[in-house]
Every structure is written in C-alpha cells, then in structure tokens.
Amino acid sequence: MNHIRLFATLTLCLSVIGTADACTGITIKTKDNTTIVARTMDWSGSENNSLYTIVPRGHTMQSLLPDGTMGGITFSALYGYAGLAVQQPEFVIDGTNEAGLSAALFYFPNYGKYEAYNENDRDISLADFQVVSWILSNFSTIDQVKESINNVRIINVDPSASTVHWRITEPSGRQVVLEIVNGIPNFYENEIGVLTNSPGFPWHLTNLNNYVNLHPGGAGPTQFGPITLRAFGSGSGFRGLPGDFTPPSRFVRAAFLKTFSLQPTNAYDGVQQSFQILDNVNVPLGVQFAVGAAPNDMPAATQWTIATDLQNKKIYYHTMYNRTIRELNMADIDFATVPFQYHALDTTKRQTIIPVKID
Question: Smaller CB count within 10 Å for the chain: N or C?
C-alpha cells in the first residue's frame, strides 16, 4: 500500500479514537475450564472500516514511523493469527493466535505516555496500533511478552494522538494489562478479568472499594422507625450500581455483573453470556454529545462486539448493523498455507430478520 495513503488513514483512525473512549472488556471462565475473552469496540466520531484479518505463518510486517514511512521494526509471524481490525488490516484491535494467546488494544487517554521517538531506535520502534500484531506474531505466553517488551520501543505514530493500553490473555485464563507510563512498561495481573479505559488499571481496582455495599439479591426489608421499608423489586442489592458510560462506571458495572452472574457450563454458554453482559455497556449514539451535536447517523457508538473461545479458538462477533452472531473457526484455517487476507465484518449493513412462518 502507498505509504502516504496508509499514514493518512492511520491519522484519520487516531483522530476518530480521540472521540471514542468507551471500550469495555470482560473475561469469563466456564465450569468446563474454557476461557472466554470479550469486549466492545466503541467509536463515536465516525463509522470505521471494520475488518476481520487472517495472517498466515511467515507473513512479514513492518512498523510505521511518525514520518509516515514503514521503516520501523520488521517482524515475521511465527504463529498464524486472526482478529478484528480497524481502518487497515495491519491495525488488529483484538485477535488470537494459533497458540491460543489473545491480545487486545483499549484506548487509554491522558494517563499513559510512551517514550519519545528516537531516530537511533528506528529499527526497534513499534507503532502502538501494531503491538497486537507483534504479540500475536511472536509469542505463545504472557511471560514471553514480558521478557521481550524492552526489546522494542512502542511509539505514537501521530505524536498528537493519545495512548492505548493492552489486555493479554492465555488459554489458562491468566491475563495481564500492559500500560506504558512515563515510558516504562508496567504489567498488572488482571485476576478480576475486566478492563475499560482511563485512569490506570490499579486505580480501577481501588475504586471498586467505593461499592462495597453492593451485593446480589435483594435488600431489606428494613424497619424504619414506625414503618417498614421494602424494595420495589428484585435486584435491589445492586441499587447504586453506576449506569453512566464513563470508564470508571463501566468498569464497576461490568465487574459486578460478570462476577455475580451464574458461571456458564461450557464454551457455548460462556460466549452467549459474554454478549449478554456486554449489552449492559453498549453506547447508543448521541449520549456522549450535546443534544443535536452527534456527528453522524450511525446505528450506535458500539460498532462491534467480539467474544473469543481461547480453548477451541473460535472468534464470534456482531456489529452495530447486524447483531446476528457470526463465527470464525480458526480450526478451519491452515495457517501454513492460507494467504494473508481481510474482509469487511458486514457484507450487508442491515440487520438479519427471520420471518416467523405460521402454518
């Protein structure tokens, strides 16, 4: 692809992200020990060119640099992988490789800070939007990523753009969050299995203590002087669960709903449950803007939602246009021979509706 065009596309992509800070991720462990990682992709500024990408073993990629050239680190895929990308197939946002390692990118404005680009480090410079591809190409475990992170210099391609952070998950369910602050990579074990956006991950864990009063089930009845107070309906133990779309509130909401939902039996049930939980953080277009100021007429700010079964290496997704769940089974892909390819998430931007037939 023409470097100028690619750089222009990336700049557009990053400018869109600047208006979109509402991605939410959850991880579910089923009774049969299947790990499901799921997340929403919420961009409200404009419709993205959303793709699924299939990358074979041996495919070579080079990182973009701030001048728009592809002169950064070069890496070839030791592992084949598949995932969902935005704008260009190189910019994989959420994917899984054939070893079962999953990596995903989440917006992280104002709190992260990469090292400034240094021309002397161009051969090890890695654009933040290509970190997921670098991880999936090279590694099968979290520890391998941790051992290699200092061998690259993660950079903003557009210095005016904000930073991102990453979720990395093994099939065992072990998960870490990678955040780069003041140029230093920090890995945090994510035992709760939830991730949103800013502030930093440790802050979100501390913030959960503000909701120590919440619990599943009902509250009361409570004797209140001469009268008895009773809940209006079921689920009153969660009264006070934040319902807005800020990252802290979405983190709390997702954490409580995920933690106290019944544990699903198997992978199929876990995938279904992950989509149901994430429905609680879907962002209707317009709520992030003043009345009448929404910039477009997309169906939603939640442009797509993905859930991945890491044991069976199956990727499921639906989009803002069509909430019918689609499946990409990595077992059907021979990563030794499949060509590098990418395709639109929606072939037709219209909800599938099946008429009910009456005899």
Answer: C
Q: Which residue has the higher pLDDT, 341 or 10?
A: 341
pLDDT per position as a tens digit, 69-125: 889 999 999 999 999 999 889 999 999 999 999 999 999 999 999 999 999 999 999
**Number of independent structural domains in the chain:** 1
**Does 71 map to a domain?**
yes
Burial 7-40 (b: 16+ CB within 10 A, else e): bebbbbbbebbeebbbbbbbbbebeeebbbbbbb
Nearest alpha carbon to residue 96 among 354, 328, 294:
328
> In the predicted model, what is the mean pLDDT of the chain?
92
Q: For the chain, how far is it from start to end, CA to CA, in angstroms?
A: 55
Supply the DSSP symbol for 160: T
Question: Going by C-beta distance under 8 Å and a sequence separation of 6 or more, which residues neighbour residue 26?
Answer: 37, 38, 39, 193, 194, 254, 258, 274, 277, 278
β-strand partners of 175:
169
Stated pTM of the model: 0.93
Query: Which DSSP string do the residues of 8-60 spell out, in sequence order?
Result: HHHHHHHHHHTT-----EEEEE-TT--EEEEEEEE--SS---EEEEEE-TT-E
Residue 116 DSSP code:
P
Per the structure, the complete domain to which residue 123 belongs is given by 3-198+266-344
Query: Each residue of 164-215: pLDDT tens digit?
Result: 999 999 999 999 999 999 999 999 999 999 999 999 999 999 999 999 999 9
Task: Give the domain CATH number at 107.
Answer: 3.60.60.10
**Helix, strand, coil content of the chain in percent (nearest 5):** 25, 30, 50
Is 47 contained in some domain? yes
Tokens (6 digits) for 94: 């959420």
Structure tokens at 107: 């917006």
224 lies in some domain: no
Q: Compute and round to an integer the Cα radius of gyration of the chain.
A: 21
The alpha helices in 53-164, defined as continuous H runs, are 131-138, 142-148
